[in-house]
């Protein structure tokens, strides 16, 4: 019985360690909440998390940048829109290297 418990602890520890400092791509689209149109030049930021990475949306409202796996809060800002914060959680077991989010911003 003790052998099984130790094995389970080792497996869980290895899964946890596999996520720490693993780079992933956070990408997605920022759209207007009312009309669904893409928002250009919106800023999506990890804030103080990791390297403080940011993504700026293109003409299609799309952004992409490298961050780390774990739960963290991103902040989305755009001129003329209310800023929001959104919690992004990556899985403990990384089964893909990209997380895709869609963000809706409302007018101020």
SSE blueprint:
Blueprint: H1 2-19, E1 23-32, E2 43-45, E3 54-56, E4 62-68, E5 72-77, E6 84-88, E7 98-105
Parallel strand pairs: 1-7
Antiparallel strand pairs: 1-4, 2-3, 2-5, 5-6
Structural features, described:
With 108 residues, the chain is of the alpha+beta class. It has a single domain, classed as Immunoglobulin-like (Sandwich). Helix content is 17%, strand content 39%. It has one helix spanning 2-19, and strands at 23-32, 43-45, 54-56, 62-68, 72-77, 84-88, 98-105. The strands form two sheets. A four-stranded antiparallel sheet has the order 3-2-5-6, with no helix packed on it. A three-stranded mixed sheet has the order 4-1-7, with no helix packed on it. Strand 5 and strand 6 form a beta hairpin. It is elongated, with a radius of gyration of 17 Å. The model has no long low-confidence stretch (mean pLDDT 82).
């Amino acid at each position: 019985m003790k052998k099984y418990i130790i094995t389970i602890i080792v497996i869980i520890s290895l899964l946890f360690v596999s996520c720490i400092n693993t780079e992933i791509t956070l990408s997605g689209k920022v759209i207007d909440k009312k009309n669904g149109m893409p928002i250009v030049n919106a800023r999506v930021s990890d804030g103080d998390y990791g390297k403080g990475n940011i993504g700026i949306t293109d003409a299609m409202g799309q952004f992409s940048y490298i961050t780390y796996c774990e739960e963290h809060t991103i902040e989305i800002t755009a001129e003329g829109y209310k800023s929001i914060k959104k919690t992004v959680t990556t899985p403990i077991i990384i089964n893909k290297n990209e997380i895709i989010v869609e963000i809706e911003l409302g007018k101020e």
